[in-house]
Specification:
The chain is built from 4 helices and no strands. It is an all-alpha fold and 112 residues long. It folds into 2 domains: 73 residues; 38 residues. It is elongated and about 55 Å long. The two termini are 15 Å apart.
């Protein structure tokens, strides 16, 4: 397998994955004023709410979200950070698109 073929096989998925991670980070930056937690606690809180929903406990999930909403009112919005999140998110879409195009080129160039 040639080096250029290896680059084509791996560049699409890797770029797409990088784009997804950047999109998650941009979304977190944009939503920063709406949650009272640190970055990793937001992730834990999301999993907690999703686990409540998956177990069918929608009332507890809604109450948990309402509690977090009440606590988030103490955060002032840093509009520069929110706008930076928008830029990172838009850039992530570009990276994901390039990755998807490379995957399509690889599939067309090397079927099977």
């Amino acid at each position: 397998m040639t080096a250029s073929l290896l680059v084509l096989h791996f560049s699409g998925p890797v770029l797409t994955l990088v784009g997804v991670v950047l999109g998650m980070w941009g979304t977190l930056l944009m939503c920063r004023p709406y949650h009272p937690f640190s970055t990793w606690k937001v992730v834990g809180h999301v999993f907690h709410v999703v686990s409540l929903l998956l177990r069918g406990n929608t009332t507890a999930a809604q109450q948990t979200i309402a509690n977090a909403s009440d606590f988030s009112k103490v955060n002032d919005e840093n509009r520069r950070l929110t706008l930076a999140g928008v830029y990172v998110l838009v850039f992530s879409f570009l990276i994901q698109t390039i990755g998807a195009v490379l995957i399509c080129i690889d599939l067309i160039a090397h079927p099977g």
